[in-house]
Amino acid sequence: MEILRVADIMASHPEHERDPRPEIYGLGAAFTTDHYGPLIEASVPLVDCGFMHADAVYDVVSVSRGSFFRLDHHQERLARSCRAIRLESPMDREQEAEILHRIVALSGLKDAYVWWAVTRGLPPLGRGDMIDPKQFSPRFYAFASPFVWLADDDQRARGMDLVLSRERVRISPRAVDPRAKNFHWLDMQMALFEAGERGGEWAVLPDEDGYLTEATGANIFVVRDGVALTPDTGCLEGITRQSVMDLCAELGIGAKTTRIHRDELDDADEIFLTTTAGSIMPARSLDGRPIGGRNRPGEISIALHNRYWERRWEGWDATPVRYDLAEG
Ligand SMILES: Cc1ncc(COP(=O)(O)O)c(C=O)c1O
Q1: For residue 328, is pLDDT > 80?
Q2: What residues are in contact with ligand 1 under a 6 Å CB criterion?
């Protein structure tokens, strides 16, 4: 089975054509605190704790063919992330949704990467009451930009070259809970640089005991004996990961969350990553060794990838973007 060249389809199919907008919106549109504008002009105050201390949670939802995918799931997760770090968003659910619709409408994009964050905001500067979350002023930021591909059509077609980090482990959930989608990225970014140095394209991180957690900005699945396995702890509960579980149920493929030790990877038949920014990304090698003896994507990975996009374009859990909001 051939993998669908989704980026090519986005670039050529009329239903993906961007609505005309002023050139300054080329990079996309943003909302910062209380106003809308071009992404290129958006900024964050230097003293925002999100910037200074990575004290923030965020989420990313995607738009394709003019519709959000699983917007409710993403909004629900952001609300959970806020609660997990004792942060109160300045926006309620309806206001948040309206901002997300409006930034996509302002960008005119039919395929978009839509990022939004709630930060701890401005600290009680010069006063000693950082012990009280109520003394901060949380802030809300959002932007919509052209769809982001963590792995492009060619990489997904031939399979990614993964590296399992030796130098880094994913931060302990007792230090920073990865289920609250947060700004702590250094472990994942350092593992990515290590992957580059070791001739790979993307990194996977174990925990202290050698069990897989997730990849940089993505969840990992290992297919063994026809069953798709994904780590049950130490990782973000990805919406694409959940979508893959749903697709497995539809396609009659076994799927489960479980512990997976690094030593078990030698008998993996297939490995793929999942994330909003790139969908389902098959791998061909791990640490320089071909996966499943093939050195190309496996059939289950390709079937899930193609089904994911077909189902999305059929309207699966889709919320059409309110492009009329660009006027208001
Ligand atoms: C650390 C991490 N894990 C997993 C994911 C995948 O989550 P989702 O499928 O909801 O995009 C992301 C997405 O950015 C992430 O940052």
Answers
A1: no
A2: 60, 214, 217-219, 235-236, 238-241, 274-276
